[in-house]
Amino acid sequence: MTISPVALITVHRAAQATITSALPHAPVVAEPQPRAARPRLVGTRGVLAAALRRAADGVAPPVCSPAH
Questions:
Q1: Domain boundaries, position 12
Q2: Does the pLDDT of residue 48 top 60, yes or no?
Q3: Could you tell me which of 24, 39, 43, 50 has the fewest CB atoms within 10 Å of its CB?
Q4: Longest distance between any two alpha carbons in the chain, whole Å
Q5: How far is Cα 12 from Cα 6, in angstroms, rounded to an integer?
Q6: What is the pLDDT of residue 20?
Q7: Is 65 domain-assigned?
């Protein structure tokens, strides 16, 4: 049974990375950066409803107009 040279190189690199990961000068994972604050959606629904109501009132026909 023969082993592929590509497999040997891959296994060697993986083993080398595992062995050197325990050294004191090994690279470390960067600290997670704080996430940017997202706008809260608590008041958004009410603000949107009020804006849509004002827009609807602006384009609505007068109350006493005859229906066609």
A1: 5-58
A2: yes
A3: 24
A4: 93
A5: 10
A6: 77
A7: no
- Dist CA 15 CA 21 (whole Å): 10
Residue 59 CB contacts under 8 Å (≥ 6 apart), including other chains: none
Residue with tokens 């009132």: 57
What is the separation of C-alpha 53 from the centre of its chain, rounded to a whole number of angstroms? Answer: 32
Chain Cα centroid distance, residue 7 = 36
Inside any domain, residue 10: yes
User: In whole numbers, what is the pLDDT of the chain averaged over residues?
Assistant: 79
State how far the Cα of 49 lies from the Cα of 24, in Å rounded to an integer: 59
Please give the tally of structural domains in the chain.
Answer: 1
Mapped to the 3 state alphabet, what secondary structure does 1-68 carry? Answer: CCCCHHHHHHHHHHHHHHHHCCCCCCCCCCCCCCCCCCCCCCCHHHHHHHHHHHHHHHHCCCCCCCCC
